[in-house]
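Hey L., structure's done. Input below.
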Amino acid sequence: MAPLEKFREKEFLDQITILNEISGSKNTEALPGLIELLKNPVGDTSIDYMVVNALNAVLSSNEDKVVEGLSDPHEGFSILCIRVAGEYAIRAAAEPLVELARSEADLDRLMEILTSLARIGDSVALPVFRTFLDHEDSFIQSSCIEALGKLGDAESIEKFKQIITDSEAPDRFEVCDITTWKAVDALAHNVGEDTISFLVSTLHHKNPTVRRIITDALVNVGSYCIPMLLAEFETGNTDSKILTANVLGFLGDRGGAAGLVAAFDKGLAQDPNVRYAVYEALGRIGTMKGIICLVDGLSETDELILMAVIGGLEKHVNPGMISTLTALVAKADEQSDRLAKAVIASKATAVFDALYENQGAGDALIDALAESKDPEVVEEFRAVLGEIGGSRAQEDLDRLPTLTTGTRKALAADDSRSMCAMHRAILTDLGFEPFMATNGEEAYDYVEQGEEFEVVITDMNMPIMDGMELVGKIRSTPGMEDVPIIMVTTESEASQQGLAAKTGVTAFITKPFKPDDLKAKILEVTGE
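Output:
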């Protein structure tokens, strides 16, 4: 008896049982009956859906029928065969699909064909993918870019570069379109000096989202990028140096640290924003030469840069570094005061623990801690003192203030630990309860959870979700249309601030800055 004989006459539960059995067994004898049920549905949504699933399963083990069905006059069956060909990478279907693509006028159907060809991954499809690289439909175009990238098509590399270059045109750079994104990924799939050097050279793209995509692509490529990144650091402008240092830090490779230290020694980090980026990168990598460079950075006087130095050293505490830092903090001069405040604001508990053994350094740290208005910071160091124990620690504990959380809320997003620490210190000084995030996605999670903020501070360039995207999402959230947003940036191009202003940024502040500068800006935008 055929599996589907008198199927339409059976009870609902029996029909489900039969279709489940066919799906599990992939019984090819059921194929004619399933095709008939697809072309002439039962009319029950659940049963009709299960017919498609059963047919999909049976076709997966019957390649000849799939290839035959690609040109079936019944649209539903031919589309199913197109999808099955891609889902199960049926190579025999590649050439027939190429022929279908060449003559297909319906955009939705063409997209189905190209998607299946991409999944099959046969080089026979290269010419047809190239044909549609300039298609007016961006989704078809991007699908072909992605496929050519994965297939390693050398002929298309110059086209990918041109797409990225064109995306910086004055009338286009404000939006990151899907074709630019796919072009970046396609180049990153074709790892070579030519492709990676190009991506490095476009790292400071005019669009922040494209910058993030290129950064992610380079990090995924890995240590192969390091020579090109270091070359860009030596010859690029300030913005490029900052971004290349960031990528080298994310890569975490010793070769990158050695190159940054060498560049530092050549005097290529004179700009304070560049030094800040280099210190942050060296802190992430943690080589001996990098730590020595960070120790030399203890002479910096800018508060934000010092926090980057301390934040880097916190991850790599060693006796030599602690000896130098102890002498500096115990010196009781202006620099020791800056260093002590940087240790506290950075929540550098490992450094604090090591320095506290020295009476002079410990006193300087407690003085700085006693001035803090951040309940979380005070409690964190209170716990460290509790672990240290003893009468001296108890006396210092008694000196610490008992603080309560502010009633006003502020949101700050930055992927830099030292920047987050500075934002936190500034906001608590102004009586805000700070909500901190390391990227735009984390920041927007607070908004989605219903938190209400009097002010938002965000970096422009961040991983996962950049500041521009965060601002756009905040401005489209009911109730957040008029919340003041301050964007913190190192960007030197006026076009970047213009783009941010269009997106909804209220005010800007450029790194590096003094805490009082940001305080004044917050008071300005909140009308105080």
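The beta strands are 408-413, 432-437, 455-459, 485-489, 507-510. The chain has a mean pLDDT of 92.

-- N.
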